[in-house]
Amino acid sequence: MTIRGSQVIPVYPLTEDIQPGDIFLVQVPIEKQQKLYRKNGFLALDNHLDRLNPTGYNRFYEHSFFAKGETNDLPRDWIRPSGTNQSWQLAPHVAFPSYSFTVRNGAGMNLAVPVQGVPVGLSLMASDAASGTIEIKDAYTIGVDTISLYHQLQDWAKMNPDFLAWFGPNGKQTNFLRVVTRIYATGKMSVSLMNASSRSGGLDAGVPKPVNLLTATLPANSTNTSEATLQNYTNGWNTLSQIVQAAGAVKGAAGNVLPGGSLRLTAASARSVSIDESFAPPIVFGYIGFDCAITENGELGAPIPTYAVIQSGQTLNQLKQFQQFKHEIKSQGELLSKIQTNYSADSIVKREGIRKKASNIGLISGTVSDENFINMLRRAIEPNDATVTQKFKDLADFSAQPQ
Prior knowledge:
This protein is an alpha+beta fold and 403 residues long.
């Protein structure tokens, strides 16, 4: 919820292969998207249509992260800079607050961010329930502005009208194109777990449960208790560290560590454990984007933030408004053409009557000359107001009447 509170949509599973400009087809109804997002904490990205190459990077960063006259080939130069192992180091840094959660055995992977340290930590404590916190560290971001990317998306849509036409509205469902504008990556996630169970042992995760190693015990018949206690604790710590490091490689144990990830024990006691999960190179855990409704003939609606789509039903209203806008502007334009045809063919007396009628119904105001009348009517077009369409219809009917 903390990640979502930052208006960042979590990625599941974590992946390197997502970047600004990625286009996804969304065919899940908005209402269902909202329910799934509230339930799971993330949105599935399963129909990857294409990948745009954003052209707005240099203008977007030229006054902040680029030197004067410098050009960069983003995102490659930041994500995988050639000749160096400093992956993501040049990108803007991001700080996220830590967030708390509760978890039970078998539910660790249901978090909005899949963190392997959770099931491993539960196994180490021999616990079936825990409360904990997750900190997203070494976080970076790269993004581009919506306007430039939307223009590129429109150009892409014009090149693929036949494909998009298949996904136009069918009366029951509206499909969308979802475009990523910004991604967030992390090089490390830190998990801290506190045992919230009275259970003393016996988990089925497959990872050893070395509860006795979490507390340094005093050996019998020892003359140097401090040294012996320290040695026992050190041995226990080393054993725990080896278990944590091996946990990701044990098939069916706590689950394999994500690609490039590694686990490291940072703190442990009888009822708590802290584990760092590192990713080299950093891996994407969330994104920001916008959605465009696919309308008739494969045309696109206005860009609406994805976060707004999954928080309320306002996108449906905006789509209806967009469709109504298209309908009204087309109707008013056709009616104006009829009026202009009739007006040009009428006598001076009839023209004067048409102008008077237009003034009486509120399409024009004041006295308008014969030569400026059609231009004034053209300025009266207002596709956001259906009553204007009715006024144009009334005037068109009047102009069609015989003199």
